[in-house]
Amino acid sequence: MSWVQFPFPALSKAIWISSESLFLLHFTRGFIVKVTKEIEKLEKSAVKLTVTVAKKDVADGYNEALSQYVKNAQIKGFRKGHVPQKVLESKYGEQIKSETIAEIIDRSLNEIFGEETEKENRPLPYAQPRLEKMPELDLTKDLVYTVTYDVFPNVEVKNFDGIEIKEPQVSVGDAEVEEELKGLQERNAVVIDKKDETVAKDDIVTIDIIEKDDSGAEIKGTRRDGFVFTVGTAEDVYKIDDELVGMKKDETKAIKKEYAADDSDANLAGKTKNYSVTVKAVKVREIPALDDDFAQDVNEKFHTLDELKEDIKRQLNRALSRKLNEIKVNSLLSQIVEKNEFEIPYSMLRAELEGRWEMMARQFQTTATELERLVTSSGQSKQAMLDQWASEAEKLLKSRIVVDTLMREKNISASEEDIEAKYKEIAEQNNISLDEVKKHYADPKAREYLVDDTKEQKLYADLFSQVKVSQGENIKFADLFKNQ
User: Fold this and answer.
1) Where are the extended beta strands (E) located within 54-161?
2) By C-alpha distance, which of 428, 311, 340 is closest to 153?
C-alpha cells in the first residue's frame, strides 16, 4: 500500500458493487507516471503543490484500468474476459475514469515525495493533503491537479545576539537536609491509638457525622460514617476542627456551625449547619527518633545517621543541578525562539493538543471520548480547554523544532564513548554498579532515550558557550521547586 493516503472521493470507489457484478480493480502493469511539479510556499508552513501529468501517461493509465475491467468483468450475456470495451465504457465509464484519476494522483504523489530532493516538502504524517478540486479526465490533455498540505517548518537559527541566561544562586545546606529528614520521619511515622483518647490538634480522628434540620430530624443523604482526617488540616471538609478539640472517643456532640459569607466552599458560604458528631477513634502519629536505627530502617545500606544525611545532601544537590539546567535550557530556548521567529502549522499544534488530551484521559484512567463527555457535563468544553493549552503547547513545539534544527545543523551525535561515560555518571549518582546501569539500558527504548538525552545535553553545552550566562538572584532551595 502507498505510504501517502488521501481522503479523495475517487479513492472510495475501489470496489464496485452492482446487481450484475462484483470485482476489485487492480493496476497490475505498473504504468510509469512522469510529472512536472510547481511548489508554492504558503503561510504557517503550508505548501501548494501543483502537479501536471503528461497526457500520454493519463491515456496509459486509463487504458490499463479499462483492460483490467475487460479482464475481470462479469456481465450477463458475456463470458468473463469477453465483454466489449464499448459496453464497459457505457456501463462503467465514470467509475473507470474515477479509478484512473485516483491511481494517477496516488502514483504521482508517491513519486514526488519519494524523491530525495523533496524531503523538506513532504507532508507531515498527521496532516492529510487536501485536493483543491477533483480534476477531469480528458485523454487529449495533460492532467493537472493541486493539493495543499503542511510541512515541517523550515527554521533558520542565526540570531543569538543579546541572549543572557540568569542562573539562580541556590545552595543545599543543613536546613535543607533537616527538612528532608523531617519528611522522612513523617513518611516512616506509625499511627497508634491515643492513650487518653481526647481529641487535640494534629490527632487523627474517625467520626460519624449527620446533618440535621431545625427540628432535629436527620436530613436524608447526609449521613457519613467512618470519616477520617487530621484535626487542624484542610482534610476536614466540614471545618469543625475547633469544635472537636476536647471530645473523647465514643462521645456524641451536637454542633451548630455558622460559616462565613466569604467561605472558600460555595456550598457552605453564609450558611448555618446543625451536625451530630460521634468520635469513633482518636489516634496519634508517632514520629521515629533521628538516630542510627532510623537510618538503617530507611535503607539497610546506611549504618549511621550521618551516612543518611550525606546521601540526602547528595540527592538534593543532584535535584538542584537538574533543576538549574532545566531553567537555563528553558530560558535559552525561549530567547532563541523569540529572536528567530517562525510559524508552526496548525496541524502540528492540533496533534500536540490532541496528544495532551489523550494523556489526560489516561491519567484519569478513561478514554478520550469519555473524558470529553465528563468535561461537557461539568459545564466546560474540550475545545475551550485545548484553547487554554494552545499558547504553552506552541512554545514547547517551537523549542522542540529549534533543538531538532540545531542538532541537524551541528551534526550532534552520541558516540559509544559518550554513552559509556553516561553509564558511569549514572552509576556514581545512584550509588549502584555499572553492570546494573547497563542492564537497565539494555532495553532498546531506554537506550534510545539515553542517546537522545546525551545528544541534547551536548547541544546545550555548545549553545551555552555562545551566549552569556550570569549569576541570577539568590533563591532558597524550597522556593526554586515551589511551582514544580
Assistant:
1) 130-131, 143-150
2) 340
Q: How far apart are CA 272 and CA 278, in angstroms?
A: 19
- What is the full per-residue pLDDT of the chain (484 aa) written as tens digits? 233 334 433 333 332 323 333 333 444 445 556 788 899 999 988 999 999 999 998 888 888 888 887 777 777 777 776 777 787 777 878 888 888 888 888 888 888 888 766 678 888 888 788 888 889 888 899 999 999 999 999 888 888 888 999 999 999 999 999 999 999 999 999 999 999 999 999 999 999 999 999 999 999 999 999 999 999 998 999 999 999 999 999 999 999 999 999 999 988 999 999 999 999 999 999 999 999 999 999 999 899 999 999 999 999 999 999 999 999 999 999 999 999 989 999 999 999 999 999 999 999 999 999 999 999 988 889 999 999 999 999 999 999 999 999 999 999 999 999 999 999 999 988 878 999 999 999 999 999 999 999 999 999 999 999 999 999 999 999 999 886 5
Long-range contacts at 185-192 (CB < 8 A, ≥ 24 apart): 185/287, 185/288, 185/290, 185/294, 186/285, 186/287, 188/288, 188/294, 188/297, 188/298, 189/285, 189/286, 189/287, 189/288, 190/285, 190/286, 190/288, 191/283, 191/284, 191/285, 191/286, 192/283, 192/284, 192/286
What percentage of the chain's residues is helix, strand, coil (to nearest 5)?
Answer: 45, 20, 35
Instruction: Return the residue matching grid coordinates 511539479.
Output: 37
Q: Is the four-CA dihedral 236, 242, 246, 251 of positive or negative sign?
A: negative
What is the rounded distance in angstroms from the CA atom of residue 169 to the CA atom of residue 291?
Answer: 32
Q: How far apart are CA 223 and CA 112, in angstroms?
A: 71
Closest CA to 177 of 305, 66, 268: 305
Angle between the 346-363 and 368-377 helix axes, to the nearest 10 degrees?
A: 80
74-82 long-range contacts, Cβ below 8 Å, gap at least 24?
Answer: 74/20, 74/21, 74/23, 75/20, 75/21, 76/20
Residue 185's Cβ-side half-sphere holds a number of Cα atoms within 13 Å equal to: 15
102 CB burial (10 A radius; 0-12, 13-18, 19+): buried
The sign of the dihedral angle between the CA atoms of 408, 411, 415, 417 is negative
Q: Which three cell numbers stand for residue 436?
A: 546494573
DSSP state of 377: H
What does the DSSP 8-state code read for residue 120? Answer: G
The alpha-helical segments, DSSP class H, found in 229-367 are 241-244, 292-298, 305-339, 346-363
